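step 3/5: co-fold with cobalt (II) ion
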Amino acid sequence: MLRIVLYPHPALRFVSVPVQRIDDTLRAQVASMFDLMYASKGIGLAANQVGLPYQFFVLNLTADPTLKDQEEVFINPRIIKRHSSCVEEEGCLSFPGLYAPVQRAKRIRVQYYDLLGHEHTRDAEDLFSRAVQHETDHVLGRLFIDYLTADVLKSVTPKIREFEQAFREQQREGSLASDDDLRMMLERLSKPAETFPT
Ligand code: CO
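step 4/5: write tokens
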């Protein structure tokens, strides 16, 4: 059972490993990530955000669960070109209720594999470009709050502290494992299975 983790869960700072195999496990994870994303009214969700240390994310820019043809899966994404920049308001399902202006490349070129294993190279702009940059950052352990200007960061710091306090409180209560244990789980998941003796 996957669920969306909130800041400052260590998964959000974990540098994920490339996907090695497209199999039933991955397809099931993708399906459940779309469900979670729609339930939270999001347009994108990265594997890190459900505690999976693998480089993939799901996207549906319409946020409409009935528009299946708008669903996209990006596996092992690489942004290979960035052009000009723009500032727009951004949010993140791991920071519910927090929105802030973020400067990003206006246009990008992204390379990735889809769920059938086909390689794609696509140019993206506007919302599509922004979402791909935001989600590709996630799989590399980067967050939108890393890009805030000093002034904006200052204004959202109380909200960020609230997330931190709520998270630490859950750890104290024991409903969440410690950072060290969570990191160990991520390390274990990120290692190829064959490195473990059976
Ligand atoms: Co996000």
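step 5/5: annotate
The two ends are 25 Å apart (CA to CA).
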